[in-house]
Each structure stands twice: as C-alpha cells, then as structure tokens.
Amino acid sequence: MLPVELPLVADRHERADAAANRARILRAARRLLAEQGVSAVSMDAVAAAAGVGKGTIFRRFGSRAGLTHALLDDYMRSFQDAILTGPPPLGPGAPAGDRLEAFCLALVSTQWTHMELALAADPQPGDPQAGAYSFLLTHVRKLVEQLQPGADAGVLALLILGAISPPVLAWLRRDVSSGDQALADSVVRLLRGITG
Amino acid sequence: MLPVELPLVADRHERADAAANRARILRAARRLLAEQGVSAVSMDAVAAAAGVGKGTIFRRFGSRAGLTHALLDDYMRSFQDAILTGPPPLGPGAPAGDRLEAFCLALVSTQWTHMELALAADPQPGDPQAGAYSFLLTHVRKLVEQLQPGADAGVLALLILGAISPPVLAWLRRDVSSGDQALADSVVRLLRGITG
DNA sequence: AGCAGAAGCGGACTAGCGGTCCGATTGTCT
DNA sequence: AGACAATCGGACCGCTAGTCCGCTTCTGCT
Predict the structure, then answer these.
(1) Taking the CA of residue A137 as centre, how many other CA atoms within 13 Å lie in the half-sphere pointing to its CB?
(2) CB B195, CB B100: distance < 8 Å
(3) Which nucleotides of strand C lie under 7 Å from a protein CB?
(4) Which tens digit of pLDDT belongs to each residue from B57-100?
(5) Which candidate, B138, B136, B134, places its Cα nearest to that of B153?
(6) Rounded to an integer, what distance in angstroms lies between the CA atom of residue A171 and that of residue A144?
(7) Distance from CA of B187 to the nearest CA of A (A)
(8) Which domains, ranges and CATH numbers included, belong to chain A?
C-alpha cells in the first residue's frame, strides 16, 4: 500500500498556463478555507477568488472532492513520509505500542492544526477519493495486528480512527473546554486497551 | 439533563388534519429512508411521497434537521428509557464498567439496525438539534467519571462516542467483511483501556 | 518565424437542494 | 350556520455542484 501515488501530480506535458492556474486555484482555495471557513469554499467562490472560470477548476480537479483531496495532499504527504521513513516512534523502529500512540497523537495534532481542511476532507463511506484515509487505516491496522494478534485488526483500526476523526475533534474544540494536554491524555488512555 | 423534553409531541389542540398529515409525513419519510437510502430523502421527495405540500412539512418540522430529529425520537426514546429505568447492565444497578460496555454495544446495535437514519441524524458540531446526542454524551461522561476519576471524562466520552459513530459503522458495513461478533469484540477490547 | 492543431479557458446553463411565502382551503367552536 | 383562525399547497428564491461548447492561447514542427 505504498504512497498510493497521489494523483494530479503533473501530466507529462502540462501547459504553462494550466500549471499556473492550478497553483492559483489551490492558493485561493487554501486562503478561503483559512479565512472564511469551510462553508465559504464553494466552487464558484474559489473560481472567483482565483480569477479563473469554474470550468477550469472542474477540468483540473474533477469535482469538489477532487479539489479537497488535492488540498489534503500537501500535509498528508509529509505525514506519510514521517510514518514510512521518519524517526521513531512515529517512523519505523519503535515498538508497535509506542508507534500507535505516537501516530494517534500526531494525527490529532495535524488535524487540529488544519481543522477546517480536515473537516472538509473527511471521507464519507463509499467515497472513492479515500486514498489518503486508507493509508492511515492500513497503517493502524498493521500496528494493531502486532499488538492484538487475536483481534480483528481491521475493525479496531476503524474504531480508533473514528475516535479521533475530524468531527470529533471539531466537537471538542467547540464545546469542551479542555487543554491540549487533556486531549492527549485521553487519547493515550483510550489506547491503553490496545497498547496493553 | 433528563429526557430533554423532545419537542413536537402534540400541541394542546392540534387540528385533526394536521395530526394526520404529520403521521403521513413521518411514515413517508421512514419508508423513503428504508427503501432508497438517505440520499433519496429530500424534502420534495418526502412531500410527494406523503401526498402533502412542502410547506406543510416545514410548518410541522421547521427544517430538515427537525424532521430527522423527529424520526430519531422514536427509537431514541426507548433507548433512553432502557438506560434510565431499564434492567442492568444497561440500566442502573450494574458496575459502571459493565454499564459502559453494555451501553456501547447496545448503541452499536441500535445504530446498526437503523443505519440510514443514524447517518442522516448524525449531529454536526454546533448543531443546536443535538439534544438526543447530548443525552448519550452525558451518560457516557458520568460512567467515565466513575471509572477514571483522574481523567477528563468529557473528552473521553466524546472519543468513545466517536469510535462508534454512525459514519464509522457505515464504513464497517461497506468495506470490512467482519461478523457482528468481531465488531462487538473490538468494541469491548477498545473499552478495556477505560473499564480497567 | 510562422502556423496548425491541440489543449485549455470561461461563464452561461442545468438540475436539484433547503427553505419561504401567501392566496386558497378547511376544520372547529360558538 | 357562520365566522375566524389554523392549515395547506406549490410556486418561488437563492444557492449549490457539475456540464457544455464556442473562443482563446499555447506549443511543437517545419
């Protein structure tokens, strides 16, 4: 399940104006998302902010989900790198329990930082765009397989990712007045059932 | 946080035709949801299926969220009763750990049965309609407080409910080929970090 | 350099959504 | 029976994601 070859990385021969427009679209979308929140990121709004026609966006990214996915790639790629080749405990080399804990805390932290984007990109069941998500899922499943050989690792992995999914974090940020430390403690505590 | 007085239970004097229409709307919505899935339940579709005008639905239920909430009340009410006054371990009387486990398994089972509805009613952060959800949250929080006095129970409760949230279950049903028993085992295993 | 054809572009257009509004209708109480 | 308020229906609004196609612009070849 290696890097999944995230799409749209540049066709062999992309025209210069097309490349420039893609960059402008991504920049505009990111700015809108950061400044006005997810509800402000309609395709029309992005097109207007980027100074291109709506057709251009759809030609480039296919759909709203495709654009979201492209935005996600940025920091997901570095997250994947940290897991696959970075230093322990996030990267290889540490015991599975430590890696699982580090992974969950890092994912929480990343999603917390990019909350608006994480919410927008939260994959719905059946979403064929779920490539990045399935990378996370596979990683967790492998760690759980080592930690709990008798369990159904696929199911457990899904439960774990659900516990720290973007909607949950968004609820937390809104309605629960707890520090980051309380959140980290809680995640670790919940994982103790798995990490042993 | 008692039963939250679920709304729309019948005004003091509701005209007979209005009551009949409300029943027809709910019946039609339930049928559409079961037969065609959540994406088929637009307000226009419900109106057509119920044989009433769209205005009637909005007069009755206020909004799409209100209608969803009304649909939810049905089985949520009995679920609340089972928790507040039913026999242990779901109801009062059993140790907190057993109650938490029983609660989670029962919630999974209920949502599994009413998957389409549960998905449609899954509250978004900041949703003022989240009354039924906040009942569940409070219940879990209280149990966690007993089990883990040192922890931030509010945060943990949210994480636990996130792990068995409707989107997670929907993913499971779609993409993971595991029996119900594997799911129950996994839930119990994850909770072991909390139940001790 | 110039040209031809492909690639890209923009924005009018469509279908469908949740939600509003108000003239016409209907039930209810006296 | 009659009057009045509650209720109804569906046209209408603003908005969305996504499509389509005539026009423009870039680029590789000669």
Answers:
(1) 19
(2) yes
(3) 7-13, 16-22, 26-29
(4) 999 999 999 999 999 988 899 999 999 999 999 999 999 999 99
(5) B138
(6) 26
(7) 8
(8) 8-62 (1.10.10.60), 64-195 (1.10.357.10)
